Amino acid sequence: MNKQDIKNIKQLLATPKKIIIVPHKNPDGDAIGSTLGLYHYLLKHKHQAKVITPNDYPNFLKWIPGETSILKYDSQTKECDDLIDNADVIFTLDFNALHRTGHMETILEKNDAIKILIDHHQEPHDYAQYVFSDVSMSSTCQMIYHFIDMLGDLSLIDETIATCLYVGIMTDTGSFRFSSTSSTTHRIIADLIEKGANNADIHNHIYDTNSYQRLQLLGCALNNLKVIPEYRTAYISLSQEELNKYNFKKGDTEGVVNYGLSLDNVVLAAIFIEDKQEGIIKISLRSKGNFSVNALSRSHFDGGGHINAAGGRSELSLDDTIKKFISILPSYSNALNYE
User: Fold this and answer.
1) Of 172, 178, 242, 265, which one has the fewest beta carbons inside 10 Å?
2) What pTM was computed for the model?
3) Domain of residue 256, CATH code
């Protein structure tokens, strides 16, 4: 995003507008944190802003300031369609291709409102008039901080905005342990704490509230953990039957794939989760070093993401998806065993 873009956006936002803010389907901490952080910022400029998510999100995100104002497209479609049809500006955050919004794709594609893309994933599609894309960023929440800074409004970041942005930076950096965590990220976090974000409370809300059944599901997942040492790979599978047994709720498998990646001498980890309602196997991939799970997912599992974190999907059965995954590993042998 260049200086002229920023000048144009400042002029665009100089008077109150009807603004819609959209994250990707199955929004995570960065998606909800960034959309709500931007939402609260736009309210300070007297805009009529609304966050619309394609669908619901985990309960551990439902304490974030402003969360109760969010509309969910899958259950409030008519109201959402009306708001989108009348929007002057649409911000799309934490994704870079409209198909990532599920059933919202069609109405967003045909809408002629000014679109502003803010995202840190690779290979953005060309659908927005203004694009702030930077794959080196730790999170979209960090990008929202920079965006507010570019608009000259850091002084407007209060406790509410700081809390929202802290959530996304913390979750998308794996509590600041991933390689995308830079010295700039830490300086931003320090500023957010100074502006009122309570880091201990935020961490407790996100990570330290578990149900008994969620921990039982984790135990089941770890019991299913398999290691393929010759390819330095670990994978976990969860069938629909296993999910049902432990009363699975959205978000219960968040971060489980990282247990596989934590194993000594493992550089690639995957989790395969059966979703019979959608008729697919949902796939999360993680890696260490320079092994690109983004490239692997794009090539084989209709997905994508970052170098070390990506997602995908398969329409094969759970067993056949795992067989496919194992079958492609030999072609990545050199990259997986590179020191």
Assistant:
1) 265
2) 0.89
3) 3.10.310.30
